[in-house]
Amino acid sequence: MKLIVALLLLSLCFSCQQSKTDSKTTIGILPYSNFNRTEIDSVKRVLELTYGFEVIILNPVDLPKQAFTTIRSSRYRADSLLRFESRFIPDSISIIIGLTNKDISTTKYDSKTGEIKSPKNRYVDWGIFGLGQVGGTSCVVSTYRLKAKVSKSKFYTRLKRIATHEVGHVLGLPHCLSLKCVMNDANESIKTIDKSSGKLCEICKVRINSSPSTHQ
What we know:
By secondary structure, the chain is α/β, with parallel strands linked by helices. It is about 40% helix and about 20% strand. A six-stranded mixed β-sheet has the order 2-1-5-9-8-10, with helices on both faces.
């Protein structure tokens, strides 16, 4: 009887500790330069609803000069922005998501060979919607490619879905095979994002906190 009581107390103690840890998870939104406040608030709301964490808005900062590139055009390297954010993140923040209206890019690699995808001159500096470090601490989203020839409503839908997608990566989620899941790979097309439900599928909900890597 004493052993059973002890095990129950231990179980309750573990549950309380786990709940306390989860409740402390905080997402910080880091606006770069003059990012639109209404767009920031939109991202804040969707992250709160999707993940149930506290979301706070940090003071805006200038884009770091070291992230700027002209390899193909004037852009900011998303991988450099993730490194900048990781160093910038305060102790009170668990996850940081940078928001910029400037074009961002990364180098795309062939998953089989590990080499830069062909043609190299196209993929050495490939423009993207966002980038997130799977199992890491930071991600970044750009609105640069989201506004072209769409209504304001559709733009906000895209922004919220991409923000949710990149934070999902940071929480450990890889790309999902479900076409309706918000974690489905965009496959270089905004149309894939438009077809998403904007929500996590049931499988992704239980896969949060997997192994670290980097995906876009």
